[in-house]
Model the fold of this input.
Amino acid sequence: VTEIKALTFDVFGTVVDWRTSVAREAKAALAPKGHALDWGAFADRWRALYQPGMEAVRSGARPFTVLDELHRENLVALLAELGVTGLAEPEIDDLNRAWHRLDPWPEVLDGMDRLRRRYVLASLSNGNVALIVAMARRAGLRWDAILGAEVARAYKPQPEAYDAAARVLRLEPAECLMVAAHPPDLAAAAARGFRTAYIHRPLERGPGREAKRPAAGTFDYAAEGFVELAAALGAR
Amino acid sequence: VTEIKALTFDVFGTVVDWRTSVAREAKAALAPKGHALDWGAFADRWRALYQPGMEAVRSGARPFTVLDELHRENLVALLAELGVTGLAEPEIDDLNRAWHRLDPWPEVLDGMDRLRRRYVLASLSNGNVALIVAMARRAGLRWDAILGAEVARAYKPQPEAYDAAARVLRLEPAECLMVAAHPPDLAAAAARGFRTAYIHRPLERGPGREAKRPAAGTFDYAAEGFVELAAALGAR
Done:
């Protein structure tokens, strides 16, 4: 069996709790202006525009565009949809950077410290480099390398997103372990030869909307969080 | 005046002492096999093949090729030139990774800690990502982002190397401070709108071969090391 040398991580949902954090940021930006919205639903709706935005790039309908820009277009659309008006451009820019201010799940920093002793840790996110850098500095995430969509100029689950990560790390795909809370991401990585670790994040979509666990054996590893993954990999 | 937000660093010579480290690694690999060479001269000669290797890429004579591969080609040529024979391929691979095992100058870790509190720190090296990652993990260098030749697919001093770094950081060039011990690198960065900081590294080329300091005012900052640069920038 090929030795695992690097772990590549999905970020939104796997490393950080985007829903709670974006809801908090939206409330902080808009409540003082008199808007009373369901802030969790605001986060959900913004996130719902995420895949269509990337799909325009994947399909070739538009050139590669970084996620910060897609997020901003989607935010402008969402604000119009909700009838939120009167924000100055710098205020929209700042709210758009809500995605730079996402909190990690509670066991993430401890788990990453353990994993990093043994493995190269790289982000393999659809977030652009500046977004992941800002998030990492704020949250204390310690990436050895920031890879993903912008480096590959391809959005997951396109094969090139995974292929570029292994190539830049100068590893065989089988030396890379994709870590994600989302089975389609893991399946796409596996199709490119990556090993896979499923992380169960029951609260990603909010209370009462827990994802179904994949059947045992679907992926190489399955864990409730990064500390448990570290233990499963023998990285204590 | 535009606020500086990120520092982009040349690495070989500016952050790490390539000559002493490569000499040590070459001796460790070759002395036990009975080779008695001038190890500093070995490092110098290997380094001398560096610019011609990249120039073939810059000129378009060959497609973009990462530095790990150029280093290995140059190592094979150098071993032949010196009449060093009998190394197995994995031994050549390991010696080639001498460039992954370079030690920082003494004040670098302290200085980077101080600088990192205030600024995004990115490598902007001609070294490929896997090389810079391996070096950083071994030496304890803490990059927020690894940029440079491989991300830009252009070798410094080509303009695209600098342009790509600012673009990926989503900063204006004037928000980026290029930090380097080599005036041509700084001049090329300045030509793309970067601010510049010259770091004097008198021992880069070995004892008695100290570089001439650029005239006062040639660059925006000049310092004897990263701690002094941090002080000059007010990042204590």
